[in-house]
Design a protein that fits this description.
- The chain is an all-alpha fold.
- The chain contains four helices and no strands.
- Helix 2 packs antiparallel against helix 3.
- The longest helix is centred in the last third of the chain and has 35 residues.
- It starts with 24 loop residues before the first helix and ends with a helix.
Length: 174
Amino acid sequence: MTSSPPPPDAPQPSPAAPPPGWENPAVRADRRLVEMLQELRVLQTGVQIVFAFLLGVAFTPRFAQLSDAQQDIYVATLLLAVVAAAVLATPVALHRGLYHHPGKQRIVTVSVRVAQVGLLLLASALTGAVLLVLDVVLGTALAVPITCAIALIFGVLWFALPWAVRRAATRDGA
């Protein structure tokens, strides 16, 4: 009794996969860059929403009634939002501009640092937007402490927490 060959459309056995967790440096750099670009897409949406809100504010009848300080907060926040958008898009531009460049790990390293600066700018823009709205709605006496609490939340969640987790993981050898 002879066996017949499998039909041509039958699934072929896959070659032995590398052990879990194994990546060569090039594959790891590619994966990290793709992950970061996905994360930045989410952040860009947030920046666009804040920027759109801020653009709309200037064209409302009530804008002329803002105090000089409130208008200064508005301008600073608008500029922070647009610079955050530019900085958070920089890793995408690096990826496109250096697409087949052999130094992918360097691109990832630079992109991570740029993204961290972008997060700081975005947190500042969001905090500024909160300050502006709360100052108009609640007054300066309540707006400032609430905004400081918001800034502290950003600082803890976006910067201190990742730093603490990374430090603990390094200490534990993970």
